[in-house]
Every structure is written in C-alpha cells, then in structure tokens.
C-alpha cells in the first residue's frame, strides 16, 4: 500500500461514511432514547447495530478529512494562507449549515418535535439535528490551521505532546460542553479533534506495518471493545464514567483502523460504486434526516417489521435527498445551499 493508493481511498471512504450516517439514522429509533419517536415494534439487534455504526461512521469521515488536509497543507500548493482556507471551508460547511437550517431542518424539526428552544438549537447550533457535524468539522480545520500558522514545528511530524493535548480535549469535552452550553459545537470539535489529528499523522508517518495487519484482527478487536463500551454505558460512578469515555474514544480510533483496513483490501469494484455517489453525498447528508422522519412516521406501525421499515426509510431518504441535491445543483443561487456556489 503506497501513499498514492492510500490517498485514493479517502474520497470513497468519506462518501461511504456519509451513506452509513443515513443508514444509522434509519435504524437508531430502535436503539432506545426516543429519537424522533418510540418504535411500535421493538428490535434490539437493529438498535445495537445502529449504536455500532455510530462508533465509526462520523469518526472515520473526520479521520479522512484530517488525512486529506495533511496532504494538501504539507505536500501541495493547493492551500494558501490560513484565512483563505477558512473562508473556503466556511463557504463549504457553514453557509450550507445556515441555509439548510433556515430553509429545511428547523421548520421540519418544529413540525415533528416542537418549537421549544428552536432558535437556540439552530441559531446557536446547540442541537441542529444532523447539521451539528458541519460547524464541528469547521472547528477541526480552524484549530489545525491555527497550530500550523503559529506552532508549525509541533505538527510537521508526529508529536506526542500534540496527541496528548487533543486526547485530553476529547476526554474533557463534556466540561467544555458545560462551559459553552454546546453552542456552535465547539465541545464536539474538542471530542473529534483527536480523530482529525490522527488522520493528519497517518498521512505523515510510515504505515506499512498497519497495512500488513489485515482487517480481521481489527474487526475482532473493534467488536470486543464495543461490547466493553456497551457494558460500561449504564454503570455508575465517576471512575466508571471516565473509563467509559476513554473506551469510547479508543473505540472510535479502532473503528477508523477497521474501516481503513477493510477499504484497503477491497479491490475497487465496491469502492468505485461508492465513488459514483460522491457528487451527491454531501447533499444527501444535508437533507436525509428529515426525510427519514417522514418515512418512519408512516412505517412505524405494527404491520411493518422493523428491518423493513429501516431499509425502506434508508432507501427513500437516500433517493429523495440525492434527487433534491441534483436539482439544487443545476442553478447558480441554489448551489450555495449544497456548498457548491
């Protein structure tokens, strides 16, 4: 696995992770907690599957984003000044976030969930449905660009001090959340920055030993650690809660290793299929959750088996959001909504 082949995996991996987010939201109602609604027919395995997806789909996307950022920032002339990069990322991430919040996500949230604290949830980005991911990822870019500009020596090569700092941020992100109230997803960025930096380091370092390991051991290790994470979720006590958080962070990193290793062994047909969806994957992410709600509001009935309901919601939301993305991409002004203006 040379670095060019490694780099070529990142775009299809990111696309695939976006699609897995759609699948996750189609299944997560059966994981408990009352997401959107309570299921009429329970299905524990489907809920566990959703929880497992959640341990690696967004983490892997963030990891791949850090990997590509490392390549572009250190190895090419594609990136200019930090301010130029952040303006570009704001147009790509924050502008669609604001427009989709106003025109799509917030109104539909008001219909399905209620209007209480609607402005705080979406204007301050405290809980803007699926859109929380966009300001979080923007912060990851912003913090990394800040380090690049002022502390370049720390990030030009793998540095245990930087990794320790971002690991502490990840562990302490609940404290940041209490201080900020979750506004603008700064606390989420603290939690995910370790994955962004890990992707950055993976691009820089020698990875030959990783690729010789094979995916099976990563899959087994991931499933075992996932079981530990599930078992410590409901246990009480500060020490157990802290251990659960550390296990969760480790599980995200291990999940990234699992996905990477599996992608490296796929000899392209399935990866190429994922690549054909790359053009619409961002728009699919922007619009899918509300379409899942619409689908499940009709499918959450005793006569429909949970797996059928989840798969139907997945196919419907994926297809409808892809069509909507294609339509918006045909006109100059509406391209801004999907980050292509």
Low confidence ranges: none
Over all CA atoms, what is the radius of gyration? 20 Å
Number of helices, where a helix is a run of at least 4 consecutive DSSP H or I residues: 18
Q: State mean pLDDT (0 to 100 scale).
A: 91
What is the string of SSEs from the N terminus onward?
HHHHHHHHHHHHHHHHHH
Helical content, roughly?
A: over 70%
Shape: globular
The largest sheet, given as strand count, sense and whether it forms a barrel, is: none
Overview of the molecule:
It contains 18 helices and no strands. It is mainly alpha-helical and 341 residues long. The longest helix is centred in the first third of the chain and has 31 residues, at 82-112. It is 76% helix and 0% strand. Helix 2 packs antiparallel against helix 3 and helix 2 crosses helix 15. It is globular. The mean pLDDT is 91.
Give a brief rundown of this model:
The chain is mainly alpha-helical. 76% of the residues lie in helices and 0% in strands.
Chart the SSEs and their pairings.
Blueprint: H1 3-8, H2 10-27, H3 44-54, H4 57-75, H5 82-112, H6 118-123, H7 133-150, H8 152-155, H9 160-171, H10 173-180, H11 186-204, H12 208-212, H13 215-231, H14 238-265, H15 269-276, H16 278-299, H17 306-328, H18 332-335
Helix pairs in contact: 2-3, 2-4, 2-15, 2-16, 2-17, 4-7, 4-11, 4-14, 5-7, 5-16, 7-11, 9-11, 10-11, 13-14, 16-17
């Amino acid at each position: 696995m040379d670095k060019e082949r490694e780099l070529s995996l990142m775009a299809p991996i990111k696309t695939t992770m976006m699609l897995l987010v759609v699948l996750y939201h189609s299944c997560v109602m059966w994981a408990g907690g009352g997401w959107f609604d309570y299921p009429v027919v329970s299905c524990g395995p489907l809920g566990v599957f959703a929880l497992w997806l959640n341990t690696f789909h967004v983490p892997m996307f963030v990891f791949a984003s850090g990997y590509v950022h490392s390549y572009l920032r250190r190895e090419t002339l594609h990136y200019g000044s930090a301010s130029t990069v952040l303006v570009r990322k704001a147009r790509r991430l924050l502008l669609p976030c604001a427009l989709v919040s106003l025109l799509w996500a917030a109104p539909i949230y008001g219909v399905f969930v209620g209007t209480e604290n609607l402005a705080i949830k979406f204007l301050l980005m405290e809980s803007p449905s699926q859109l929380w991911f966009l300001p979080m990822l923007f912060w990851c870019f912003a913090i990394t660009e800040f380090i690049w500009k002022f502390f370049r020596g720390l990030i030009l090569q793998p540095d245990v001090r930087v990794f320790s700092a971002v690991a502490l941020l990840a562990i302490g992100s609940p404290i940041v959340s209490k201080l900020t109230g979750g506004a603008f997803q700064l606390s989420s960025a603290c939690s995910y920055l370790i994955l962004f930096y890990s992707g950055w380091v993976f691009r820089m370092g020698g990875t030959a030993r990783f690729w010789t390991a094979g995916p099976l051991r990563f899959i087994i290790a991931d499933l075992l650690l996932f079981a530990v994470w599930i078992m410590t979720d409901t246990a009480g006590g500060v020490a157990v809660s802290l251990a659960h958080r550390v296990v969760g962070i480790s599980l995200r990193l291990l999940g990234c290793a699992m996905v990477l290793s599996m992608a490296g062994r796929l000899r392209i047909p399935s990866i190429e299929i994922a690549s054909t969806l790359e053009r619409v994957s961002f728009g699919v992410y922007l619009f899918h959750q509300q379409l899942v709600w619409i689908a499940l509001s009709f499918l959450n009935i005793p006569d429909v088996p949970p797996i059928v309901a989840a798969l139907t919601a997945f196919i419907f939301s994926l297809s409808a959001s892809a069509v909507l993305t294609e339509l918006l991409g045909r006109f100059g002004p509406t391209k801004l909504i999907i980050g292509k203006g």
